Give the backbone structure.
Amino acid sequence: MAERHGLWTTFRAVVAALWLAGLYMAFIGTPDERTLGPSDRILFIHLGAAWTVAIAYSLAALLSLLYLLRPQPRYDRWAAASVEVGTVLTTAVLVSGSIWAKFAWGTYWTWDPRLTTTAVLWFLYLGYLMMRSSIDRPDQRAKVSAIWALVAFLDVPIVFEAVTWWRSIHPEVITTQGFAMPGSMVVAVFVFFAAVVGLFIELVRLRVRQAEIESGIAVRKAQWMGQHT
Amino acid sequence: MIRDAWVLFTKDLVIEARTRERVAAMALFAFIVLVTFGFAFDPARTDLRPVFAGLVWVEIFLAGQMGIARSFAVERETDVLTAIRLSPVDPMAVICAKLMVNGLLLLVVEAVAVPLSFSLFHVPARFPLAPFLLVMALTTLGFLVSGTLLSAVSLHLRMGELLLPLFLFPLLVPVILGGVESLGFVLSGHVDAAYGWLRIIVAYDALFLALSLWLSDSLWEV
């Protein structure tokens, strides 16, 4: 246990270092964009968060599938924590994207496929969180949430396809010719991505720990009530 | 399984035929939405043809959502779900029966609301019939399948009927877009352009039909 604790302390130190390095690169180590000036620096947090959202929701869908196949509370706890942190990150993606769009496109919002899909994604997973909060029995909550996480996840590609058909002005960062940005920015993007993933893991772990303690308290309470009534 | 589904379907149909609660409420609500649109957009002075497809689907989806939210209400209020679960009925049959009942109700609502929309919004009803019916059927199926699945899910929630539209409409985005665009193309005579959209709707229909059937076991265990 003590060894694991030490491992996590190291992990946290690495994540903190990545954040410092990422911030340094984002604000000092990379050049201004030719036409947009410093506004493009928001891209680092935007991309880092966006890619981590993909990881978060994929992870939640996988864990939900596992739960439906073999119901174990820990799958549910990890899936729920993953969606919670993922939804906070989706909010960050939408807000940072809007701020950048105001400078680059002159408007906070356009009906571009990626923007629209991200907004739908946000609604779907806010729904997941609302669903969880309106069911009291843990096993029932776990099963219903698992169903919803899977349904929502499978809906996203079709939403993207549909909205793309509908209309398409989002800049392509990764094209077939490689990255459309200078090398120092590419490094900064990946350092930031690693930093956000690290933060994601840490937050999810904390939430899972919290959920474990909560369910432990509920069990003890039930036991105590059983003994004293 | 087919026989079980048929028995459950006729049971629901008898209940509906005796009370006519859901179908009446749905059709009336569709009509009210239509009239509300009339007040909001004033068809006498505005040409509603460019947005007509959108108005029709919003009308049907709103009215349909209201009825679908109550798919399992009778069972819940009289605690028949436990009885169905105890009986040797395949859970898939329950879902199939509910899909058929909801489908029939939606069909009635559409049969009333769509012709009324054409006449009240002053949109000439000149279109090729077969593509029109195909678009209506596939879009309605998408709405039906995801709506019925979610109404089974929301059965377990506190205030489930209230929350259902919050879950359903974001999920429906591909069907809403596909239905509105393809209907728009059919009504404006560009049938070829509609087929591209129908592919997305078919993909959605197939995915959610498969999911509903696969998840039907889990839906009842909880």
